[in-house]
Design goal:
By secondary structure, the chain is α/β, with parallel strands linked by helices. The protein has 12 helices and 9 strands. Helices cover 39% and strands 15% of the residues. The longest helix is centred in the last third of the chain and has 20 residues. The protein is globular.
Length: 292
């Protein structure tokens, strides 16, 4: 049976915990193996993203596999092709590749597809889901903490697939989320994702979201005006109401993330390096899972 990795909810509690625990247990994040020898993965990116391409490519290559990369600067070509012509394209891909990574392509187009293929499909980030980011950041939290307490977290900025995956993961992992978004953000999809989640709360402002937060996720600036971006800039003064030992995650492409002061990014609060390590770890465990 082909295993796909499209969303946190589809993976389920048992598999998510397994991936996180295995990622934490890898002795060396850059460890090289021959597990994917002679296997080829194609990366279909609806838009270029160096961080995602770098991480996925490194994971595949360090496990002995090969990568074919295809990106569309317009963000429309492959999205439309894969959506409209699945019945024709996917059987053709079946001859050439062993795995497909998708980025920027709605996973709804791949649910309930009408054609059977022999290769797994992995979501490397979509508007509605980003399982690898969420699991990697949770693994980083658990690795950094001595006890499995309930970790109060907050999200600041525009919602994206990472946030939606964190909301789903909060049902199984010891994290809680307070979310604050700029006034101009449309919260319709966010509210539908929150649903009846018991450990997730949408609050009025960033100060309320930051209160006693142990970990801070900074979302994107998509759809936010320049004055709002400046208003939501993160500085040491802004973090005074958070936990004194709080950690900061970038939960969007660095170029699109809420601005952070250089002092914070150079301090022990920044978890950017650990994030990079655990995203590599998680992608390796995902690849092992889909091919096991």
């Amino acid at each position: 049976m082909v295993k796909n990795v499209l969303s946190i909810r589809e993976l389920g509690e048992k598999v998510c915990w397994m991936l996180v625990q295995q990622a934490i247990g890898i002795p060396d994040a850059k460890m090289r193996t021959d597990y994917l020898t002679e296997k080829v993965a194609v990366l279909f990116f609806a838009k270029p993203s160096l961080p995602e391409r770098l991480c996925v490519s490194a994971a595949i290559r360090q496990m002995g596999g090969s990568v074919v990369y295809e990106a569309d600067p317009t963000g429309e070509h492959w999205r439309n092709e894969l959506h409209k012509h699945q019945l024709h394209l996917l059987p053709i891909f079946n001859f050439y590749v062993d795995c497909i990574y998708l980025y920027g392509i709605p996973i709804s187009a791949f649910k309930g597809r009408e054609v059977d293929v022999d290769f797994p499909t992995i979501n490397a980030g979509s508007p509605e889901s980003h399982p690898a980011h969420a699991l990697a950041d949770i693994a980083c939290i658990l690795k950094s903490s001595r006890y499995l307490n309930s970790f109060p977290c907050c999200w600041l900025g525009t919602p994206n697939g990472t946030l939606f995956s964190l909301i789903a993961a909060s049902e199984w992992f010891p994290i809680s989320l307070r979310i604050a978004v700029p006034e101009s953000c449309d919260t319709k999809m966010l509210l539908s994702q929150i649903g009846d989640a018991k450990k997730v709360e949408l609050v009025q402002n960033k100060q309320e979201a930051l209160r006693d937060a142990k970990y801070i996720f900074l979302g994107s600036t998509a759809g936010i005006s320049y004055p709002e971006i400046k208003e939501w800039e993160i500085s040491p003064e802004v973090l005074r109401c958070a936990d004194k030992q709080c950690g900061i995650f970038l939960a969007a492409r660095p170029i699109n993330t809420l601005p952070v002061s250089q002092d914070l990014m150079s301090s022990s609060a920044s978890l950017l390096l650990r994030q990079s390590e655990f995203r590599l770890r998680i992608h390796k465990r995902i690849l092992h899972y889909v091919f096991s």
